[in-house]
Here is the input.
Amino acid sequence: MTISDSLPDEPEERHSLKSQIEADELLDKQENFSRQQLKADAPLRMVETAFLASASSLIWFINNYFPLGPVLRIFFPVPIALVYLRWGNRAAWMAAVVSGLLLSVLMGPVRSLLFVMPFAFMGVLLGATWHRRVPWIVSITLGTLLGTLGVFFRVWLLSVLSGEDLWIYLINQTTDFLEWLFLKLGILATPSVFFIQVGAIALIIINNFIYLFVVHLAAWLLLDRLGNPIPRPPRWVQVLMDNEG
Here is the structure.
């Protein structure tokens, strides 16, 4: 190959080298911008996490001393779920821990535990499912299981602290309900102990399922307006809400 044959390749090599340098400079600028953005987001993440953890604790605190029925209860897990949607898994767990510690100082460790299990954990769970855009039936079912475990934890903890078996109180309430139901249905029989216990567990599950559905409905209406939407509800829910509107 002669010198004249290699000359046309030099501008292409020079152009390729220049393009590589420009690409490297652009990559460096993007990395610097990402680092600056992370540094700028760190204080905002900390402030929002602390604020929403405090809001969650405050809702529980107010509901304990000034109960407003189910209104405030609906929002127990929502602030921590919002932390997950905005800042991810680590920030949500930090919010759950901070809210528990704050309530431990304000109300004592027992009531703090009753909030953490299940509502703080439920906030993390709902945030994770909403972040992954899973259907409502999946997130409601998972939340129902956690809420049911929370009821059993509450009964166990309060039974240990009070020295009385509070499960018996729950069984008595279920017995009265089933006897009333049998009377209305015209069933001339007394429910067995096994049937009463199964009925108590079923009532707990149904109650938690309804609660989680209302939580999803409230979060759907609220978080959309805050710019952190959750997955869309089933079609029949949207139609029902449109008709109500």
Observations:
- The longest helix spans residues 9-65.
- The chain has a mean pLDDT of 84.
